[in-house]
Amino acid sequence: MPTIFASAEDPSIPVHAMEEAGCASALAALPRQARNWAEHIGFSARLGDTLPVPGEDGRVAMVLIGLGSAEARARKRFGAVANLSVLPAGTYHIASALPLPLLEEMTLGWLLSSYGYDRYAGKPAPERALKQPEGIDAKRMDAIVAGEFLTRDLINTPANDMGPDELEAAVLALSLEFGADVSAIRGEELLEQNFPLIHAVGRASPRAPRLLDLRWGSQGPALTLVGKGVCFDTGGLNLKPGSSMALMKKDMGGAATVLGLASMIMALDMPIRLRVLIPAVENAVSGPAFRPGDILTARNGLTVEINNTDAEGRLVLADALSLATEEKPDLLVSMATLTGAARVAVGPDLAPFYSTQDDFAEALSTAAAEVLDPVWRMPFWAPYEALIEPGIADLDNAPSGGFAGSITAALFLRRFAATAPSYAHFDIYGWQPAAAPARPKGGVGQGARALLAALPKALGL
Predict the structure, then answer these.
(1) Model confidence at 402, in pLDDT bands (50, 70, 90)?
(2) Comparing 13-133 with 141-459, is the CATH topology the same?
């Protein structure tokens, strides 16, 4: 994989990062012209300040970055990030001596900020290349950035160009890059091979539903990732209003995120047996659409009453999770843009997760804080199990009442992962509603970097 860093031999512009409290002494150490310019502009190293400093020829000779204070950075994820939009194209290097965690934050933030989605309009953003800072693990940084950009590209692509066929093509392309094996079960084959819920959700669309299955690695503990691949969600016969349908191209954000994580794992050649399962469907409206009131039987034999066709994600995940548990992987993780209730609870920035194992949850939460990929543990609250048991069938896909929507969805999924030694479910949003440091507006990965950092401890690597 080609490096994302600029060549060490290229001429480059120095970037000086300084905290607000030490700004005066840091400026005093700069050449007089740079110091005078910074004082004239009023640069005070507040968090996020980015000041290009011109040289005698009028070109940018250096860049000053404000790191604010530790307290300010704690309130703003990726606070130590340059505002690349004010910098001209060119090659840069971080000239300041920074503690390694802060240097890693600044480097990753710079690289993630360089993302742009220009497939349909606009021009590619000017390239502001960065040289590899000393102490940075370039291979790991490459893997993380490439995986995150894959996730963003997949989510940002509109549904007319990112249906089940195109999602399958993306999985195949990833497999070819890393030498993985891929199989797909499509259309009526889903019924023949006992994936009835995936078939039911996707059968109304002319774009055939399918289950995508990627395998990589032959030794080590087994990790299975399951990602919701609903390429567009109309809500089915319980049709969404237009305002709720506008962002439904991102309803395959779970699939996009597990593919980004899989890319990171394979690029780093982690010693595990990796499996990725993606039920890829379009929840459309036509004569064959599944109906409210239908009772469907899942792969594992549980019956499900359909009380809302817009609660389709948990249905396709149920069949995929049932398949995953048949091999009893050491760790089973599902990721899905599953409920609006999760967003009401924690907003778009945090990735809520559920875990059947306290040790895993602790390792994940610790890793998430270290890599600035925030997660928040939610409870598999057993007293709410009754809410997903309608009486007429084993399970209800959309309990009435509106209480604890994310928890009841997670409890539903746990019924299909019950035999997994360790199961975790992420109810992600997958979208950045407004531009923020290192995260342009649009599709975004959540939880993948935290999981990557937690895997060594979680799997005993």
Answers:
(1) confident
(2) no
Cβ atoms 450, 335 nearer than 8 A:
no
Alpha-carbon distance 94 to 74, whole Å? 21
What pTM was estimated for this model as a whole? 0.97
- The DSSP result for 240-302, as a single string, is PPHHHHTTGGGGGHHHHHHHHHHHHHHHTT-SSEEEEEEEEEEE--STT---TT-EEE-TTS-
Question: Residue 22 burial by CB count (10 A; 0-12/13-18/19+): exposed, middle or buried?
Answer: exposed
C-beta of residue 13 within 8 angstroms of C-beta of residue 21? no
Q: What rounded mean pLDDT belongs to the chain?
A: 96
Question: Which is more confidently placed, 305 or 391?
Answer: 305
Phi, psi of 226 (to 5 degrees): -120, 125
Instruction: Say which CATH topology domain 141-459 has.
Output: Aminopeptidase (3.40.630)
Place of tokens 């409890």: 411
240 assigned to active site: yes
Q: Which of 314, 414, 415, 439 is catalytic?
A: 314
Cα–Cα dist 383/380, whole Å: 9
Per the CB < 8 A criterion, the answer to whether 229 and 124 are in contact is no
Catalytic residue, from 240, 273, 377, 457: name it: 240
Per-residue model confidence (pLDDT) at position 208:
98
| CATH class given for the domain over 13-133 | alpha beta
Rounded mean pLDDT, 281-298 = 98
Q: CA-CA distance, 280 to 167, in Å (whole number)?
A: 7
Residue 88 has pLDDT above 90, yes or no: yes
314 belongs to the catalytic site: yes
